[in-house]
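Review this:
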Amino acid sequence: MTGLLEEIKALAQLREAQGGKWDNIKPEYAARMRAQNRFHTGLDIARYTAKIMREDMAAYDADTSKYTQSLGCWHGFIGQQKMLSIKKHFGTTWVSWLSIWLISSCSLVLSPASLASFRALDDAKEAGDKTKEQELISQIDNHETHVVPIIADIDAGFGNAEATYLLAKKFIEAGACCIQLENQVSDEKQCGHQDGKVTVPHEDFIAKINAVRYAFLELGVEDGVIVARTDSLGAGLTQKIAVTNEPGDLGDQYNSFLDGDVIENASDINNGDVVIKQNGKLVKPKRLASGLYQFKPGTGEDRVVLDCITSLQNGADLLWIETEKPHVGQIAAMVNRIREVCPDAKLVYNNSPSFNWTLNFRQQVFDAWEKEGKDVSAYERDKLMGIEYDNTELGQLADEWTRNFQRDGAREAGIFHHLITLPTYHTAALSTDNLAKGYFGDDGMLAYVKKVQREEIRQGIATVRHQDMAGSNIGDDHKEFFHGYPVTTGWLK
């Protein structure tokens, strides 16, 4: 990037070349606007962050302690606040990515830090502090953007491969460098932690992976990343029987998991029945009234392993295994099998709010102690969510296991990226509930002042000046720029 002073000089020369027609244009203002808008399009963002994501993947391959994290964002404002908070507490935005759910884009192209630096620069100039002035110019020239890699979840593509391609393009054009899609049937789509999930044969899913890759390549995002999610662990149904041409091919492997009854003679076949050849025998797959076919019980993990290997061998870069609980051992067992074929397999893992994390980890500790022969008579396994267990030895150890889950998962289970899908959806609901309880109750306005504004001010939360978050300060600057009001910033005069 060109430095601020060099930009001003170049823009001044450009203005002079216009023979007086651009005399109303201030080179300093234009340079300032350029500095505040490093990225001009979503594709600029996607290309820039895809390279970073690839570098992060390589860093994890070399050292599993270098895993990455994100908090799922369901609104652009939430994404903005997340990045501001991370910058405030950790001094850099590169401890996190953005994971986008329920919205089409979240491109944070304006850097409030650089805006604040400009105003501090004004003050330093007016005070005659040359040292501070040079320090702030250097900060502006080297400021760290708030734009980080964006993972966009497009579910099952909302239709066929063509629909998947069109939707992926929209997300990439909005700034996503990574597209996540899943192997559920689009029009039967269920939350990953609900019953009734229906998956598609591999050839259908591979077509959607191809569609996303073509979208990346068409738009010039050659480093674009594809996350292939499998819901097979909790899916007991498939929409259709896979096409197969010979024993052992991909379609035959998929069909081998179908539950069914062996056909002994033609009289076992009824009108409308479907018959396939499975492991050398004629089998009538079990079909529901809806037309969906049923998988054999207990085949979920085997199907997950086949899904993941197939996806990686056909263009996916990362995997997502949707599980019913946060258990490092369970995840590691599947990943180790996948790595026997694909040694560099890596996961994006959903640290889901759908899990009861407290109960899950307390029960994991309980089971581990019981297996070791430790006395657990003081605990009731099914009631471990109770507040009475919070300060017990078991409760405290479970909290420690929860604290270490991401580190342990990265080290032992190949989890490269940890995300929580909708954490701020839940924090918004909780904080709104608490505010409403007090505000419409006895506390009235004190409920807001004490629990919200007072804490915002004391903790230095940027939204205290909500006008700034909406861009009002930038708009005020633009009034001066566009209408030719007197220059108020001394360093620009």
In short: The longest strand covers residues 68-73. The chain has 17 helices and 14 strands. Residues 42-62 form the longest helix (21 residues). The chain has three domains: 4-36+111-145+466-492, 70-106+146-238+298-421, 427-460.
